[in-house]
Amino acid sequence: MKETHHTPPIAVVILNWNGESLLRRYLPAVIDNTPGHIGEVIVADNGSSDGSMAYCREMGVRVLDLETNHGFAEGYNRAIALLTHPYILLLNSDVRVTPGWLEPLHDFIEAHPEVVSVQPKIRSERAPESFEYAGAQGGYMDRLGYPFCRGRIFATVEEDRGQYGDGEAQEVFWTTGAAMLVRRQAYIDAGGLDASFFAHQEEIDLCWRWQCLGHKLYVVPQSVVYHVGGASLSAENPRKTFLNFRNNLRMLHRNLPEDRLRKVFRLRRVLDLLAAAVFLLSGKPGDAKAVLKAWQDFRSSKPERRPIGDRAQAYKSLYQHSLLLRYHIARERTFSSLKR
């Protein structure tokens, strides 16, 4: 009798570029804690010149050689186009997974067909008692486009004391690209990650498009992982500042309802100029220039506003107060203290 190959429902895809040291540190735990009947561990390589691919093959992991560095967004788009698994788990190479991390994510999304993406609770690998900046316990955004998390507002990251619940899954506006499980077909139908972003906030843009299409996204806190964060691009690098500001503007232009565009961009222009001034006064001229360059780049290459679902309905899911005012003026520094 001919043996048939069983394809598990989830492809756990780690995008890599010259990250051999991170793979050596974190890949073994991914392999050990990913049951073969649920997930297949795959490394998609963005044209690395170190020993990454050799190490992955030594570990018995399937490698997708993408040949050149396409960035985070296009790298994942190309990798996912090569796969047939019904679910894809996008996992950063600097994430430490824990025993039992995958099953709760799979079980929840499998039981809820209206949900297109879920994420685990994400704690910091550097400070394990705290949430991690990039995803914490699920993502949200205010009406001016400032992302925040349950457990992290701007630079204030909370200690995880179980204050946001560990039992029930919770609906969120966006799931983090550090560890996000998605329905492959929903990913493709929404256009995938925007390759023009290259890196940073592209997953929030995708999640916003899903919101416009009426889909739901959740955090499943029974699943816990630990994320280093900033392993590919330091927070002190002006390139990161440029990408965050530029991509945020592109995301707003693409997803805001028509009647909100002009007002939001008028306000953001003022606020971003203030941010540039703060960078300059803080002795960070490179970051100040990055903010101005972000606006220049955005104006010269605005993304096309294609029809996509109900932008007005998705806008109602945003936090309708100003996060900047609540944080800096009202001094509301934790998710639980924010005015509702």
Please write the string of helix (H) and strand (E) elements: EHEHEHEEHEEEEEEEHHEHHHHH
Proportion in helices = 25-40%
User: Quick check: average pLDDT?
Assistant: 95
Largest sheet: 9 strands, mixed
CATH class of the largest domain: Alpha Beta
Structural class comes to alpha/beta
Q: Which parts are unreliable, with pLDDT below 50 for 5 consecutive residues or more?
A: none
The fraction of residues assigned to DSSP E strands is: 15-25%
Ends distance: 62 Å
Report the total helices. 11
CATH architecture of the largest domain: Alpha-Beta Complex
Q: How many DSSP E strands?
A: 13
Could you give me the name of the CATH homologous superfamily of the largest domain? Spore Coat Polysaccharide Biosynthesis Protein SpsA, Chain A
Determine the CATH topology of the largest domain. Answer: Spore Coat Polysaccharide Biosynthesis Protein SpsA, Chain A
What is the total domain count?
A: 2
| Molecular shape | globular
Rg, Cα atoms, Å: 20 Å
GO molecular function, one term: glycosyltransferase activity
Keywords: Glycosyltransferase, Transferase
Protein name: Glycosyl transferase family 2
Domain Glycosyltransferase 2-like: 12-124
